[in-house]
Amino acid sequence: MSDQVVKLRNAQGKQGTARAVPDRSTRDMSDAKAEPERDAAMTSDTYDRPDTHDTRHEAFDHAAQVWLSRFTHGLSPAALMNAWFDWATHMVAAPGKQLEIAEKAGEKFGRYMRYAMACTGSTNAVAPCIDPLPQDNRFRGDAWKMPPFNLIQQGFLMQQQWWHNVVTDVPGVTAQHERELQFLTRQMLDVLSPSNFPGTNPEVLKKTQQTGGLNLIRGFQNYMEDLQDLMAGEARDGAHSFQPGRDVAVTKGSIVYRNQLIELIQYAPLTDKVRPEPILIVPAWIMKYYILDLSPQNSLVRYLVEQGHTVFMISWKNPDAGDRDLTLDDYRRLGVMAALEAIGGIVPDQKVHAVGYCLGGTLLSIAAAAMARNGDARLASLSLLASQVDFTEPGELALFINESQLAFLDSVMWKQGYLNTTQMAGAFQMLRSNDLIWSRIVREYLMGERAQMNDLMAWNADATRMPYRMHSEYLRKLYLNNDLAEGRLKVDGRPVHVSDIRVPIFAVGTVKDHVAPWRSAFKIDMLSDTDVSFALTSGGHNAGIVSELGHPRRTYRVRHRKAEDLHMDPDTWLNETPEREGSWWPAWVDWLTAHSGDMSGPPPMGCKDHPPLEDAPGTNVFQK
């Protein structure tokens, strides 16, 4: 265990903000005492394994997998081979499926030839033989409807559909392997899309003709600038126009508490009177906190303060190699629990509205369940924004969650002590390679255009790292084993249960969320034995939450369920909950108000034990 983590834990014990974290051997001993049945079932080989295990062999395995990762972009070759072998062996044993895909190939070829002949013999527009998927915008332009480009894109879409037929519905193939094969074939086909090549993209050809080739020259300049930024490890050009404390994260406040993992921001009041219950926001540590305090016009923090709420926000440290041994429970103790302790000193004798965003919501759910188990009644309510507590349907990220892939990822993190920002961004981009990779390449390198940087894009470029041990625990215990939802996740040696949470819950899902799909976020309604309000808003994982008033084309739905009411499945909920125009923020503030006391004078900024240390946004937000 690193010296830095030992110092971090000892310091916390001295400060009294959280119980001192025992070392690994102490935790293992407490687990052994708590689980005699498990220990009794162990064989002599199991006891021998920790003593005889040679860490040199483990290091050699890690080194080999790190070397392989350079060629596989972090994907486990064993996992990919398992998926292919599962498909191949079952395909060999399925002559009916083989006949089906052969027939589909012939049928699609016939349709394509009839379409080609109709286009040749007609001067009018011919109805396409296949339409792109709703989310596929590559061939929407009118130029793609003119020959020969209509024939090119129709042929590609036919091929894409046929490959989908090849890798799906093969009897006996597991659902996980089928999803992995769909992902692989989609990646390969995306590379070969005619929209990616100047000679087969009519929009690029038209732009080249109009500019005399200047678009390609500008595109090459854009490429060289990006390459230079990548090699220098710097943010994209334009991101520097949005500096925290100057352009974004400008809501006035002070750092009132700091430890080796967090800074706690208390925001200054903007009203003469405030609600007595403060709000604590726990953002995800995969992102800088100011996603919720962007520009003044779209800052959720500023909106809450303007509505008369006292707001506190956690700003996480950007971990480095010295933080490799931080655990998921360290984040709970030194993050959520330490913040609650500090808030209790500044706003004494008041319960707290706790708000968690993304991974922060999952961590907050764990903390709330442990507090409920222990009789800790400091929470007034719980709000979960685009967060999951049940990971049986985690969306497209499930492609990267299996034992082989996690072992491979462990090796990558083991060498450097953390998961870096490039590796995380690459995984998310591959899930939506059309939108996040190839469309950008076409626009910036072939069309020679640069997307104008905005505050959300600049924040997205300001990514953070993930500590080795914490991230490994998070993926295994939650994504892979679903320990939280199934009651196996332990806090202080005892399991916690989400159903123990009795404070009212407000949960938000977003329609286009690829990180925490809304049906997955909805599961909190079925896991809880308390009042639950669920809101579904338009937009994606970030833009759906940052949904300021006046934003055009925003819609949301919200329904409140009492603890004694019957549960709804998500599809029934969707069909029976009317859609409303506008932002979901006012509906949430109305809900917070209904669970708050009467307005009174604002609390002081900090207190004797936690005086203001410096102005917000503090120092953590500037760590690169």
From TrEMBL:
One protein family per Pfam: PHBC_N
UniProt keyword annotations, A-Z: Acyltransferase, Hydrolase, Transferase
Keyword Acyltransferase included in the entry's annotation: yes
Gene Ontology molecular function, alphabetical: hydrolase activity
Signal peptide bounds: none
InterPro entries named in the record: AB_hydrolase_fold (IPR029058), PHA/PHB_synthase (IPR051321), PhaC_N (IPR010941), PHBC_N (IPR022211)
Biased composition (Basic and acidic residues): 21-54
SUPFAM superfamilies, alphabetized: alpha/beta-Hydrolases (SSF53474)
Region (Disordered): 1-54, 599-624
Record domain Poly-beta-hydroxybutyrate polymerase N-terminal: where: 58-97, 135-304
PANTHER family: POLY(3-HYDROXYALKANOATE) POLYMERASE SUBUNIT PHAC, POLY-3-HYDROXYBUTYRATE SYNTHASE
Name of the protein: Alpha/beta fold hydrolase
